[in-house]
Design goal:
Strand content: 15-25%
Radius of gyration: 19 Å
Number of helices: 6
Number of domains: 1
Structural class: alpha/beta
CATH topology: Glutaredoxin
Number of strands: 6
Largest sheet: 6 strands, mixed
CATH superfamily: Glutaredoxin
Order of helices and strands: HEHEHEHEHEEH
CATH architecture: 3-Layer(aba) Sandwich
Strand order of the largest sheet: 1-4-3-2-5-6
Distance between the termini: 65 Å
Helix content: 25-40%
CATH class: Alpha Beta
């Protein structure tokens, strides 16, 4: 009787888990980039307004979403390299947004000791989810047409990848 009961409980649990909402689809190269949104922009990186950081307002520019955290060692190590890339590409239509789930105040304090040339933005709770961010650091490259051009880490991201996303 215990085996039968265990079987039915397992089946019921499996049905319940399958019925749960699957969430956003897994982003793929070539697909339209999922929505992103920010609740705050920190003053420490490149100046930008929230209104200027929407997918619609950035259309026509390559957007590099650099997911990071102030407590992430590899993220911190990658900052000088990212700053150099931004400087090298400053004359191209490229916007690099360093996306964190941390509050603006934390990002601003961090930027004092770790200058970043990117825009520092706090996620509203959808960007990390929509891009399936499971580990940091993580980079998504969105081309000028709003499609995902590629994925990288800050240590492998290259100027050629970014230039290749200009359509």
């Amino acid at each position: 009787m215990t085996v039968i009961r265990t079987f039915f409980v397992s089946v019921a649990l499996g049905v319940a888990l399958c019925a749960q909402e699957a969430g956003p689809p897994l982003p793929k190269v070539g697909a339209l980039a999922p929505e992103f949104g920010f609740s705050a922009v920190a003053h420490g990186g490149r100046a930008a307004s929230l209104a200027a950081l929407t997918p619609a307002s950035l259309r026509g520019r390559v957007v590099v979403l650099d997911f990071f955290a102030t407590w992430c060692g590899p993220c911190i190590e990658a900052i000088p390299r990212t700053n150099t890339l931004i400087e090298d590409l400053k004359d191209l239509p490229v916007t690099v947004i360093s996306v964190s789930e941390e509050p603006r105040e934390t990002l601003e304090a961090f930027a004092v000791t770790h200058p970043m040339a990117s825009v520092l933005a706090t996620d509203v709770g959808v960007t990390f989810k929509n891009y399936w961010v499971r580990a940091l650091p993580f980079v998504v490259i969105i081309d000028t047409t709003g499609r995902i051009s590629g994925f990288a880490s800050p240590t492998t991201l290259s100027a050629e990848q970014i230039r290749g996303a200009i359509k």
